[in-house]
Specification:
About 60% of the residues lie in helices and about 0% in strands. The chain has 18 helices and two strands. The protein has a two-stranded parallel sheet. Helix 3 runs antiparallel to helix 17 and helix 5 runs antiparallel to helix 6. It is globular, with a radius of gyration of 21 Å. The N terminus is likely disordered.
Length: about 375
């Protein structure tokens, strides 16, 4: 239990000077004299939840059930596809079921394993992290981009990889506006649906061989990771595209069509789950890493929750609707996020720290589109 609580403690920094700088467009609204106590009190209460309940911050029974169900549905759908002579409609149905399983696994298992949140045994997390590769995404590069290019620099233009709009989108007020950005709230969902196709065929190779971030340019990737990159892509394309045509005699157009539909589902779902937690019209976009003296205030200013009282949303999205708790405790399994979020909200209310939450995911998506419209119109 001690090692588990230490995980939580190390995630919330303990500093004496924690208020945002004067002139910042985001400020806590409570008593400034008590503001310095907020991170300490919040840390102590989050620790207390695990200690008092003798609860491990890693995977509980619910999480292991989710892992078993997700992997069983993925493996089962493909077993049926290869073992039975299905007609075209049934083939597509099971193919799409496998795609839904991939979406579930990416949000619920791969993300947690990437954060070492499933087990205290590193090899368990590492093994489950290969779920990314099974779904066509390189797990090694995703880990780098997610940790170095997001968690350490939330909503920072030029650093947060989640804000990379490739010129198609303007996600922050700190980047130049192009004429077509005035329509970005209209075309956003179309391009979000292309997200996973881009990741499988372009993004991973770009990050390895044509990096744009300085930290990637300075990184020397092990030869083993290059081998895994190509082997993982080959395995994914083989079981998703090549083998159904060669072994089952399926029409290449039928398989390609089902493949694209799967990616539209994965891309749109994953994009919206993440975009609605940082890029909405009420979150803040710092101009530098040093704008907040304490990372806790940075997290509260740049992050929002949604539908935290809806257990179905939490179950399907891997708890990422409890996003503030995730950033405060990224090494904690997401099945613990709901009670942690209640602690976060109560403590924030007590200290007058703004806590952002939308009652439904639909409302969060709407406010994301509002931000895109605002940024597309403003200079």
């Amino acid at each position: 239990m001690t090692s588990g609580t230490e995980v939580v403690i190390t995630l919330i920094q303990d500093t004496d000077s924690i208020a945002p700088p004067e002139g910042s467009s985001w400020q806590p609204i409570g008593d400034p004299a008590s503001a310095s106590s907020f991170p300490k009190v919040l840390r102590r209460r989050l620790d207390k939840f695990f200690v008092d309940g003798n609860i491990s911050p890693k995977a509980d029974r619910t999480m292991w059930v989710k892992i078993a169900v997700g992997l069983a549905v993925l493996a089962g759908s493909w077993a049926v596809i290869y073992a039975l002579r299905l007609d075209s409609w049934k083939f597509v149905a099971f193919y799409l079921l496998g795609g839904l399983a991939q979406t579930f696994l990416l949000l619920n298992i791969a993300h947690d394993s990437n954060h070492n949140a499933i087990s205290s045994v590193p090899s368990v997390n590492k093994t489950l992290n290969y779920v990314f590769d099974i779904c066509g995404i390189n797990s090694y590069m995703w880990r780098i981009l997610h940790h170095r290019g997001h968690h350490s620099c939330i909503n920072l233009h030029g650093e947060d990889d989640a804000l990379t709009g490739r010129g198609i989108f303007r996600f922050t007020p700190h980047e130049p506006r192009a004429g077509w950005h005035r329509f970005q709230h209209i075309y956003a969902l179309f391009f979000y649906a292309m997200f996973s196709l881009d990741y499988v065929f372009v993004r991973d190779f770009e990050a390895f061989f044509f990096p744009t971030h300085d930290y990637l340019k300075r990184t020397r990737h092990p030869a083993r990771e290059y081998a895994i990159l190509f082997a993982g892509k080959a395995f994914y394309l083989a079981y998703m595209l090549i083998l159904p045509v060669m072994l089952l005699g399926r029409s290449p157009l039928l398989v390609a069509g089902a493949f694209v539909i799967v990616h539209l589902i994965v891309g749109l779902t994953v994009s919206l789950v993440f975009q609605t937690t940082h890029t909405i019209d009420s979150t803040y976009f710092p101009s530098s890493r040093n704008e907040f003296d304490n990372s806790v205030y940075h997290i509260f200013a740049t992050t929002a929750d949604y539908a935290t009282s809806n257990p179905v949303v939490g179950w399907l999205t891997g708890g990422l609707n409890h996003h503030i708790a995730h950033h405060l405790c990224p090494f904690v399994c997401h099945t613990h996020y709901a009670p942690l979020t209640r602690i976060v909200q109560e403590t924030a209310d007590e200290f007058g720290v703004p806590y952002r939450q939308h009652p439904t995911m639909t409302r969060a998506i709407w406010h994301h589109l509002i931000l895109l419209k605002q940024l597309g119109s403003e200079t």
